[in-house]
Amino acid sequence: MSIAIRDVREHELDSVLALNNAAGPAILPLESARLRQLYDHAEYFRVAERDGALAGFLIGFGSHAQHDSRNFAWFAERYPDFFYIDRVAVASRRRGGGVGRALYADVQSYAELRYPQLACEVFLEHGADHALLFHGSFGFREIGQHVMTQDGLRAAMLMKTLCSYPWVRDTYGNVLPDVAWLQRPRKQILAVRPTGTDA
């Protein structure tokens, strides 16, 4: 009954799409072309596997990415350096079983070595208490709200300071040690950070 977190595989995109679109109003629906675009450009795109079956996924972008999300743009207008959780979904039969926590632990482990803050949003229209409580238990705090004009959806914009980042930056600068557990996900190759940043 263990949970394995790993990079998504291209042949799993149809399953990811089905999982996304079955998640309900807490996440925006996707079309296959949009998911392919996320797959091609995301810095972080990992899945959770439990008992050999896809149980959830999480997609994320660094603040220097060319990402066209309106919520991402909201953060980018206000903060120079962060890692953005674009979307996360857990299969309904797996909710409450630790899959979401495993995905968030993994993305934090990735982000805290490279970015000072972790950002995401929670839509408020559809009984968001469980999502807000989940994020609050991970140390996120609301820094504002944003209304997506095309959809009319209001989102609580959440951010978490990553305490390990200053030490990692001061100790290693922009070059992390070449050890297996620090290898960037496959998608990171497409999102090399610009030189001249202090992160």
UniProtKB/TrEMBL annotation:
GO molecular function per UniProt: acyltransferase activity
Annotated transmembrane regions: none
Signal peptide as annotated in the record: none
Thylakoid keyword on record: no
Domain N-acetyltransferase: residue ranges: 3-164
One Pfam entry name: Acetyltransf_1
EC number: 2.3.1.-
Keywords: Acyltransferase, Transferase
Protein name: GNAT family N-acetyltransferase
